[in-house]
Amino acid sequence: MITAVIVEDEKSSMEYLLSILTKNHSNIQVLASASNVDDAVTMIETNKPDIVFLDIQLQDGSGFEVLDKLKREMPFEIIFTTGFLDYKERAMDYFAFYYLNKPVQEHELKKVLDMYFVKRTSFDVQKYMAFKNQIKSKNQIINIIVKDDYVPIKLKDIIFCDASGSYTFIHTIHGDQYLASRNLKRIEDLIEDEGFYRVHRSKLVNMKHISVISKDGIIYMCNGAEISTSVRSKKKVIAMYQLYLETRA
Length: 249
What we know:
alpha/beta, Rossmann fold, 5-stranded antiparallel β-sheet, 33% strand
């Protein structure tokens, strides 16, 4: 039997999640529920569940505060529940957290629990700290996974990103080249900055660091790198760069 607790500040949402678990997942026993930070911490420490369903927004704070108060004692797994259809969702997807969008759908809950039963891992504290840092930086920093470690990189320091199969090379103004264990599409989805533009199926550039674009559509970056655009996208790339310059004037 898998044990669980629910941390949710909306009574109706808590009761609905409980009803779905009771109806469809008899192998999961919900031990308790809480709606605020302190009660949630006490409940988790007392019950020592296998799974914590954790709402990001609570009555008196956030789910992040619950995790911070637990410090490094996290032998359970977290399934975030969130009403945010924005950056937080994409960040959680990037870091491969379990999460459910509210209102919770039965098929989505089943999918998340199926993944949990396959992996059966504990909450990754290092991954959480990197995720929290990225959220607090308001997307001015991207934490990338490099050989199982999380490396924070300021977006303003990225010159361009270069696809390499399932991985991405990230080139910075400091001369560093990081190999991130995420494909370029995942990196692009996470970067919410109008200064970045996909100029080629394998290249994402920071227009801030473009030195010049030739009439032939060759992009010369500040580090000397030369990036070719496709014939089809050349005019659009040049137009986007001109628009970028005008908005910065």
